[in-house]
Design goal:
five-stranded mixed sheet, 13 helices, globular
Length: 378
Protein backbone atom coordinates (compact mmCIF):
# COMPACT_ATOMS: atom_id res chain seq x y z
CA UNK A 1 0.00 0.00 0.00
CA UNK A 2 1.23 3.51 -0.74
CA UNK A 3 2.45 5.89 1.92
CA UNK A 4 0.73 9.28 1.77
CA UNK A 5 2.47 12.54 2.45
CA UNK A 6 0.72 14.14 5.41
CA UNK A 7 0.81 17.90 5.92
CA UNK A 8 2.12 19.31 9.16
CA UNK A 9 -0.67 19.71 11.74
CA UNK A 10 -2.19 23.17 11.86
CA UNK A 11 -2.04 25.26 15.00
CA UNK A 12 -5.35 24.90 16.83
CA UNK A 13 -7.18 27.44 18.95
CA UNK A 14 -10.06 27.05 21.37
CA UNK A 15 -11.54 30.25 19.98
CA UNK A 16 -13.56 30.12 16.77
CA UNK A 17 -11.63 31.83 14.00
CA UNK A 18 -13.81 34.01 11.79
CA UNK A 19 -17.56 34.24 11.57
CA UNK A 20 -19.92 31.28 11.26
CA UNK A 21 -21.08 30.93 7.68
CA UNK A 22 -24.79 30.36 6.88
CA UNK A 23 -24.09 26.90 5.47
CA UNK A 24 -22.39 25.90 8.76
CA UNK A 25 -25.38 27.08 10.77
CA UNK A 26 -27.72 25.17 8.48
CA UNK A 27 -25.67 21.97 8.83
CA UNK A 28 -25.72 22.39 12.61
CA UNK A 29 -29.48 22.87 12.64
CA UNK A 30 -30.01 19.84 10.38
CA UNK A 31 -27.97 17.78 12.83
CA UNK A 32 -30.13 19.04 15.73
CA UNK A 33 -33.27 17.87 13.94
CA UNK A 34 -31.81 14.49 13.02
CA UNK A 35 -30.45 13.96 16.55
CA UNK A 36 -33.86 14.67 18.07
CA UNK A 37 -35.55 12.20 15.73
CA UNK A 38 -32.80 9.60 16.17
CA UNK A 39 -33.05 9.55 19.95
CA UNK A 40 -36.77 10.20 20.47
CA UNK A 41 -38.49 8.83 17.39
CA UNK A 42 -41.29 10.34 15.32
CA UNK A 43 -42.34 13.90 16.15
CA UNK A 44 -44.41 16.66 14.67
CA UNK A 45 -42.73 19.78 13.32
CA UNK A 46 -44.04 21.67 16.36
CA UNK A 47 -42.46 19.05 18.64
CA UNK A 48 -39.15 19.50 16.84
CA UNK A 49 -39.33 23.29 17.24
CA UNK A 50 -39.83 22.91 21.00
CA UNK A 51 -37.12 20.24 21.31
CA UNK A 52 -34.44 22.07 19.31
CA UNK A 53 -35.30 25.68 20.15
CA UNK A 54 -35.52 26.53 16.46
CA UNK A 55 -38.42 28.48 14.97
CA UNK A 56 -41.27 26.66 13.27
CA UNK A 57 -40.38 28.32 9.97
CA UNK A 58 -36.79 27.07 10.25
CA UNK A 59 -37.99 23.58 11.19
CA UNK A 60 -40.39 23.45 8.24
CA UNK A 61 -37.57 24.44 5.88
CA UNK A 62 -35.12 21.93 7.36
CA UNK A 63 -37.61 19.06 7.36
CA UNK A 64 -38.53 19.78 3.74
CA UNK A 65 -34.87 19.64 2.78
CA UNK A 66 -34.30 16.40 4.71
CA UNK A 67 -37.32 14.82 3.03
CA UNK A 68 -35.99 15.88 -0.39
CA UNK A 69 -32.59 14.35 0.49
CA UNK A 70 -34.22 11.07 1.50
CA UNK A 71 -33.26 11.14 5.19
CA UNK A 72 -36.66 11.95 6.69
CA UNK A 73 -40.18 10.72 5.87
CA UNK A 74 -43.69 11.70 6.91
CA UNK A 75 -45.47 8.97 8.87
CA UNK A 76 -49.08 10.07 8.86
CA UNK A 77 -50.96 12.04 11.49
CA UNK A 78 -50.93 11.82 15.26
CA UNK A 79 -54.20 10.74 16.86
CA UNK A 80 -56.20 13.86 17.57
CA UNK A 81 -56.40 14.85 21.25
CA UNK A 82 -58.37 18.05 20.89
CA UNK A 83 -59.70 20.60 18.42
CA UNK A 84 -57.64 21.62 15.45
CA UNK A 85 -55.88 19.86 12.60
CA UNK A 86 -53.99 16.69 13.67
CA UNK A 87 -50.18 17.03 13.51
CA UNK A 88 -48.23 15.18 10.83
CA UNK A 89 -45.42 13.08 12.31
CA UNK A 90 -41.97 12.90 10.72
CA UNK A 91 -39.09 10.54 11.46
CA UNK A 92 -35.73 9.47 10.12
CA UNK A 93 -36.25 7.06 7.22
CA UNK A 94 -34.75 4.17 9.13
CA UNK A 95 -35.36 1.68 6.32
CA UNK A 96 -34.29 4.02 3.53
CA UNK A 97 -30.55 3.59 4.07
CA UNK A 98 -28.12 1.00 5.36
CA UNK A 99 -24.64 1.25 6.87
CA UNK A 100 -21.71 -1.02 6.02
CA UNK A 101 -19.37 -1.89 8.87
CA UNK A 102 -16.06 -3.75 9.09
CA UNK A 103 -14.24 -5.11 12.16
CA UNK A 104 -10.58 -5.82 11.38
CA UNK A 105 -9.60 -6.76 14.94
CA UNK A 106 -10.12 -10.53 14.64
CA UNK A 107 -7.09 -12.80 14.73
CA UNK A 108 -8.54 -15.34 12.28
CA UNK A 109 -11.25 -13.47 10.35
CA UNK A 110 -12.22 -9.95 9.39
CA UNK A 111 -15.94 -9.42 10.07
CA UNK A 112 -18.35 -7.33 8.04
CA UNK A 113 -22.01 -6.47 8.42
CA UNK A 114 -24.91 -4.55 6.95
CA UNK A 115 -26.55 -2.48 9.69
CA UNK A 116 -29.69 -0.41 10.02
CA UNK A 117 -29.50 3.19 11.17
CA UNK A 118 -30.46 1.87 14.63
CA UNK A 119 -27.37 -0.32 14.74
CA UNK A 120 -29.11 -3.65 14.15
CA UNK A 121 -27.21 -6.17 12.06
CA UNK A 122 -29.23 -7.52 9.13
CA UNK A 123 -26.51 -9.38 7.20
CA UNK A 124 -23.04 -10.72 8.00
CA UNK A 125 -19.96 -11.53 5.96
CA UNK A 126 -16.39 -12.53 6.79
CA UNK A 127 -13.06 -13.26 5.14
CA UNK A 128 -10.07 -15.09 6.53
CA UNK A 129 -7.16 -12.93 7.65
CA UNK A 130 -4.46 -13.43 4.99
CA UNK A 131 -1.22 -15.07 6.09
CA UNK A 132 0.69 -12.68 3.83
CA UNK A 133 0.51 -9.05 5.01
CA UNK A 134 0.66 -7.84 1.41
CA UNK A 135 -2.77 -9.39 0.81
CA UNK A 136 -4.52 -7.66 3.73
CA UNK A 137 -5.83 -4.63 1.83
CA UNK A 138 -7.21 -6.76 -1.01
CA UNK A 139 -9.05 -8.93 1.53
CA UNK A 140 -10.55 -5.83 3.17
CA UNK A 141 -11.77 -4.51 -0.20
CA UNK A 142 -13.27 -7.89 -1.07
CA UNK A 143 -15.13 -8.03 2.24
CA UNK A 144 -16.37 -4.45 1.87
CA UNK A 145 -17.71 -5.16 -1.63
CA UNK A 146 -19.54 -8.26 -0.37
CA UNK A 147 -21.15 -6.28 2.45
CA UNK A 148 -22.20 -3.37 0.25
CA UNK A 149 -23.67 -5.71 -2.37
CA UNK A 150 -25.86 -7.25 0.34
CA UNK A 151 -27.28 -3.94 1.59
CA UNK A 152 -30.35 -3.84 -0.72
CA UNK A 153 -30.70 -0.11 0.02
CA UNK A 154 -28.56 3.00 -0.50
CA UNK A 155 -25.45 2.75 1.71
CA UNK A 156 -24.90 5.82 3.86
CA UNK A 157 -21.22 5.02 4.31
CA UNK A 158 -18.65 2.44 5.40
CA UNK A 159 -17.31 2.42 8.95
CA UNK A 160 -14.12 0.50 9.75
CA UNK A 161 -12.71 -0.43 13.15
CA UNK A 162 -9.07 -1.48 12.86
CA UNK A 163 -6.19 -2.30 15.19
CA UNK A 164 -3.55 0.38 15.42
CA UNK A 165 -3.27 4.12 15.92
CA UNK A 166 -5.60 6.01 13.57
CA UNK A 167 -5.81 9.76 13.07
CA UNK A 168 -8.96 11.82 12.55
CA UNK A 169 -8.75 11.53 8.75
CA UNK A 170 -8.72 7.74 8.72
CA UNK A 171 -4.95 7.38 8.22
CA UNK A 172 -3.55 4.37 10.08
CA UNK A 173 -0.40 5.84 11.61
CA UNK A 174 0.80 2.48 12.92
CA UNK A 175 -0.63 -1.05 12.84
CA UNK A 176 2.25 -3.45 13.48
CA UNK A 177 0.10 -6.54 13.00
CA UNK A 178 -0.57 -5.51 9.39
CA UNK A 179 2.86 -3.98 8.82
CA UNK A 180 1.23 -0.60 8.18
CA UNK A 181 2.73 2.85 8.77
CA UNK A 182 0.98 6.02 7.60
CA UNK A 183 -1.53 4.14 5.45
CA UNK A 184 -4.48 6.25 4.26
CA UNK A 185 -7.01 3.46 4.71
CA UNK A 186 -10.05 5.73 4.46
CA UNK A 187 -8.82 7.42 1.30
CA UNK A 188 -7.82 4.21 -0.43
CA UNK A 189 -11.10 2.50 0.42
CA UNK A 190 -13.09 5.51 -0.81
CA UNK A 191 -11.20 5.34 -4.11
CA UNK A 192 -11.97 1.61 -4.44
CA UNK A 193 -15.61 1.72 -3.35
CA UNK A 194 -16.92 5.16 -4.29
CA UNK A 195 -18.48 5.62 -0.84
CA UNK A 196 -17.73 7.80 2.19
CA UNK A 197 -15.45 5.84 4.54
CA UNK A 198 -14.83 6.49 8.26
CA UNK A 199 -11.95 4.66 9.97
CA UNK A 200 -11.07 4.48 13.68
CA UNK A 201 -9.17 2.29 16.11
CA UNK A 202 -11.33 -0.70 17.05
CA UNK A 203 -11.49 0.20 20.76
CA UNK A 204 -12.44 3.78 19.92
CA UNK A 205 -15.21 2.46 17.68
CA UNK A 206 -16.35 0.14 20.46
CA UNK A 207 -16.77 2.89 23.05
CA UNK A 208 -18.95 4.84 20.61
CA UNK A 209 -21.25 1.81 20.33
CA UNK A 210 -21.38 1.44 24.10
CA UNK A 211 -22.37 5.09 24.45
CA UNK A 212 -24.97 5.18 21.66
CA UNK A 213 -26.49 1.71 21.89
CA UNK A 214 -25.30 0.37 25.26
CA UNK A 215 -26.47 3.07 27.64
CA UNK A 216 -23.01 4.17 28.80
CA UNK A 217 -22.66 7.62 30.32
CA UNK A 218 -20.69 10.54 28.92
CA UNK A 219 -17.52 9.79 30.93
CA UNK A 220 -16.52 6.20 30.35
CA UNK A 221 -13.56 4.02 29.43
CA UNK A 222 -14.15 0.81 27.51
CA UNK A 223 -11.38 -1.77 27.79
CA UNK A 224 -11.32 -4.18 24.87
CA UNK A 225 -9.60 -7.47 25.61
CA UNK A 226 -8.74 -10.02 22.93
CA UNK A 227 -5.37 -11.01 21.54
CA UNK A 228 -4.28 -7.60 22.83
CA UNK A 229 -5.59 -4.95 25.20
CA UNK A 230 -6.74 -1.47 24.22
CA UNK A 231 -9.18 1.14 25.46
CA UNK A 232 -11.52 3.78 24.11
CA UNK A 233 -12.44 6.85 26.16
CA UNK A 234 -15.25 9.37 26.17
CA UNK A 235 -15.15 12.52 28.26
CA UNK A 236 -18.18 14.77 28.23
CA UNK A 237 -19.65 12.49 25.58
CA UNK A 238 -16.79 13.25 23.16
CA UNK A 239 -14.07 10.80 22.06
CA UNK A 240 -10.67 11.43 23.62
CA UNK A 241 -8.04 10.96 20.92
CA UNK A 242 -4.89 12.42 22.46
CA UNK A 243 -2.13 14.57 21.01
CA UNK A 244 -0.92 11.76 18.72
CA UNK A 245 -4.24 9.90 18.41
CA UNK A 246 -2.92 7.20 20.74
CA UNK A 247 -5.18 7.72 23.79
CA UNK A 248 -6.25 4.36 25.17
CA UNK A 249 -3.09 2.48 24.20
CA UNK A 250 -2.80 0.89 27.65
CA UNK A 251 -1.71 -2.61 26.66
CA UNK A 252 1.97 -1.93 27.19
CA UNK A 253 1.70 -0.04 30.45
CA UNK A 254 3.76 -1.88 33.06
CA UNK A 255 1.54 -2.82 36.01
CA UNK A 256 3.37 -3.41 39.26
CA UNK A 257 7.02 -3.57 40.22
CA UNK A 258 7.16 -7.30 40.90
CA UNK A 259 8.11 -8.47 37.43
CA UNK A 260 5.54 -10.65 35.76
CA UNK A 261 5.07 -12.49 32.48
CA UNK A 262 7.09 -11.63 29.40
CA UNK A 263 5.27 -9.54 26.82
CA UNK A 264 5.46 -9.85 23.04
CA UNK A 265 6.96 -6.36 22.97
CA UNK A 266 10.03 -7.68 24.79
CA UNK A 267 9.35 -6.11 28.17
CA UNK A 268 8.21 -7.70 31.43
CA UNK A 269 4.89 -7.13 33.19
CA UNK A 270 2.88 -5.24 30.55
CA UNK A 271 -0.88 -5.20 31.11
CA UNK A 272 -1.33 -7.14 27.87
CA UNK A 273 0.87 -9.96 29.18
CA UNK A 274 -1.39 -10.23 32.23
CA UNK A 275 -4.76 -9.72 30.61
CA UNK A 276 -4.81 -10.62 26.90
CA UNK A 277 -7.00 -13.65 26.22
CA UNK A 278 -4.26 -16.04 25.00
CA UNK A 279 -1.97 -15.27 27.96
CA UNK A 280 -4.74 -15.37 30.56
CA UNK A 281 -6.21 -18.59 29.17
CA UNK A 282 -2.80 -20.25 29.27
CA UNK A 283 -2.22 -19.28 32.90
CA UNK A 284 -5.69 -20.46 33.92
CA UNK A 285 -5.13 -23.86 32.29
CA UNK A 286 -1.98 -24.39 34.37
CA UNK A 287 -3.28 -22.91 37.64
CA UNK A 288 -4.18 -24.71 40.85
CA UNK A 289 -6.18 -21.62 41.87
CA UNK A 290 -8.00 -20.22 38.80
CA UNK A 291 -9.89 -17.64 40.87
CA UNK A 292 -6.58 -16.35 42.20
CA UNK A 293 -5.32 -15.94 38.63
CA UNK A 294 -8.45 -13.96 37.72
CA UNK A 295 -8.15 -11.79 40.84
CA UNK A 296 -4.51 -11.05 40.03
CA UNK A 297 -5.36 -10.09 36.46
CA UNK A 298 -8.19 -7.86 37.70
CA UNK A 299 -5.88 -6.15 40.17
CA UNK A 300 -3.36 -5.48 37.39
CA UNK A 301 -6.11 -3.96 35.29
CA UNK A 302 -7.17 -1.80 38.25
CA UNK A 303 -3.57 -0.60 38.71
CA UNK A 304 -3.51 0.55 35.06
CA UNK A 305 -6.94 2.20 35.21
CA UNK A 306 -6.78 3.97 38.58
CA UNK A 307 -4.73 6.98 37.42
CA UNK A 308 -6.91 7.31 34.30
CA UNK A 309 -10.11 7.25 36.37
CA UNK A 310 -8.63 9.71 38.85
CA UNK A 311 -7.30 12.11 36.23
CA UNK A 312 -10.44 12.16 34.08
CA UNK A 313 -13.08 11.60 36.79
CA UNK A 314 -14.69 8.74 34.87
CA UNK A 315 -18.00 7.31 36.06
CA UNK A 316 -17.80 3.80 34.68
CA UNK A 317 -15.54 1.14 33.19
CA UNK A 318 -16.94 -1.23 30.55
CA UNK A 319 -15.13 -4.44 29.64
CA UNK A 320 -15.45 -5.93 26.17
CA UNK A 321 -14.27 -9.48 25.62
CA UNK A 322 -14.99 -13.03 26.82
CA UNK A 323 -17.46 -12.75 29.72
CA UNK A 324 -16.27 -16.01 31.29
CA UNK A 325 -12.83 -14.43 31.75
CA UNK A 326 -13.59 -10.78 32.37
CA UNK A 327 -16.85 -10.88 34.30
CA UNK A 328 -17.28 -11.79 37.94
CA UNK A 329 -14.01 -12.20 39.84
CA UNK A 330 -11.79 -10.22 37.46
CA UNK A 331 -14.19 -7.27 37.15
CA UNK A 332 -14.75 -7.16 40.92
CA UNK A 333 -11.01 -7.18 41.61
CA UNK A 334 -10.45 -4.39 39.08
CA UNK A 335 -13.20 -2.25 40.64
CA UNK A 336 -11.89 -2.74 44.17
CA UNK A 337 -8.33 -1.91 43.11
CA UNK A 338 -9.42 1.30 41.39
CA UNK A 339 -11.45 2.33 44.45
CA UNK A 340 -8.54 1.74 46.85
CA UNK A 341 -6.15 3.72 44.62
CA UNK A 342 -8.37 6.78 44.01
CA UNK A 343 -10.16 9.33 46.18
CA UNK A 344 -12.90 7.26 47.82
CA UNK A 345 -15.29 10.20 48.21
CA UNK A 346 -15.69 10.42 44.44
CA UNK A 347 -15.11 6.89 43.18
CA UNK A 348 -16.77 4.60 45.71
CA UNK A 349 -19.67 4.16 43.31
CA UNK A 350 -17.49 3.42 40.29
CA UNK A 351 -19.12 0.77 38.12
CA UNK A 352 -17.06 -1.92 36.37
CA UNK A 353 -19.27 -4.01 34.11
CA UNK A 354 -19.30 -6.09 30.97
CA UNK A 355 -20.25 -4.33 27.77
CA UNK A 356 -23.81 -4.92 26.62
CA UNK A 357 -22.70 -5.51 23.01
CA UNK A 358 -19.35 -7.32 23.31
CA UNK A 359 -19.67 -9.67 20.34
CA UNK A 360 -20.57 -7.07 17.70
CA UNK A 361 -19.43 -3.93 19.47
CA UNK A 362 -16.90 -2.84 16.83
CA UNK A 363 -19.39 -3.33 14.00
CA UNK A 364 -21.98 -1.27 15.87
CA UNK A 365 -19.32 1.33 16.61
CA UNK A 366 -18.60 1.50 12.89
CA UNK A 367 -22.27 2.35 12.39
CA UNK A 368 -22.06 5.16 14.95
CA UNK A 369 -19.02 6.56 13.13
CA UNK A 370 -21.02 6.74 9.89
CA UNK A 371 -24.09 8.21 11.61
CA UNK A 372 -21.93 10.88 13.21
CA UNK A 373 -19.83 11.63 10.18
CA UNK A 374 -22.67 11.67 7.65
CA UNK A 375 -25.69 12.86 9.64
CA UNK A 376 -24.20 14.46 12.75
CA UNK A 377 -26.05 12.12 15.14
CA UNK A 378 -24.86 9.66 17.76
Amino acid sequence: MSTPTRPAPATRSRRTAGKILPEHARAHNRALVLQALFTQGAMSRADLARETGLTRVTISDLVAGLIDDGYVIEQGVREASGPGKPAILVDIDRDGHRIAGLDLSGSEQFAGAVLTLDGEIVARHAVDVPADRSDVFAAIVRLARDVIADAHAPVLGLGVGTPGVVDDRGVVLAAPGFGWTDVDLAGQLEAELGLPVLVANDANAAVLAEHTFGGAGDDVILVRVGRGVGAGLLTGGEPLAGARFAAGEIGHVTVGTDGGPACACGRIGCLEAWLAVPALTERLAAADDPQGVLRDAGERLGIALAPIVGALDLSEIALSGPADLLGGTLAEAAAETVRTRTLATFHDGLQVRMSTHSEDIVLRGAAVMVLSGRLGVS
